[in-house]
Design goal:
By secondary structure, the protein is mostly helical. The chain has one domain. Helix content is about 55%, strand content about 0%. The protein has three helices and no strands. It has helices at about 5-10, 25-35, 40-45. The protein is elongated. The termini are far apart.
Length: about 50
C-alpha cells in the first residue's frame, strides 16, 4: 500500500461530520452520496437544506 492509500483508509470512519456522533450509517451515506453524515443528519438536510 502506498502512503496515499493509507491516508484514504484512515479517513473512512463512522464519525458524522455534522453532529460528530459515531453511527454505522455514516459509511453507507459516504458510499451513496459522498458525504460523511449519519442518517438523522441526512434526513434533516433533506427537509431543511440550509
Amino acid at each position: 500500500m502506498t502512503e496515499e492509500q493509507k491516508l484514504n483508509l484512515e479517513d473512512i470512519d463512522d464519525k458524522c461530520e455534522e453532529c460528530k456522533k459515531i453511527d454505522e450509517s455514516v459509511r453507507e451515506n459516504l458510499i451513496l452520496t459522498g458525504f460523511k453524515i449519519c442518517k438523522s443528519c441526512r434526513v434533516s438536510k433533506t427537509i431543511f437544506p440550509i
